[in-house]
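[Automated response] Your request has been received and processed.

Submitted sequence:
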Amino acid sequence: MSIKRMSLRFNLDNESDRKAWEHLQSIPDSKNKAVIDALNASFEQANTLADLIRQTIRECLSAGTFVPADNSSLNEKPEVSEDEAALLDAMDAFMGD
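Generated structure:
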């Protein structure tokens, strides 16, 4: 069996540390198991939330119909500022495309 050991320190003058310490002290069962379960749940929830947001954006964009306001602009490439380009790149990365 391979066991990895890690120790934690809590600064009780720090509100966040103190709250975590108090939560651990209130656990009647294995504190080790509680910490492991909390870490796993936290990461799984973050991944699930990101996936849900991606799916929602995809559904919203796929349901939309985009019609240009002026047909003369169909042959022209729209000008995109650096900020807009960065936003579009970030959205592409977020959507996984």
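Summary generated for your ticket: The CA atoms of residues 18 and 84 lie 43 Å apart. The chain is about 60% helix and 0% strand.
If you did not submit this request, please reply to this message.
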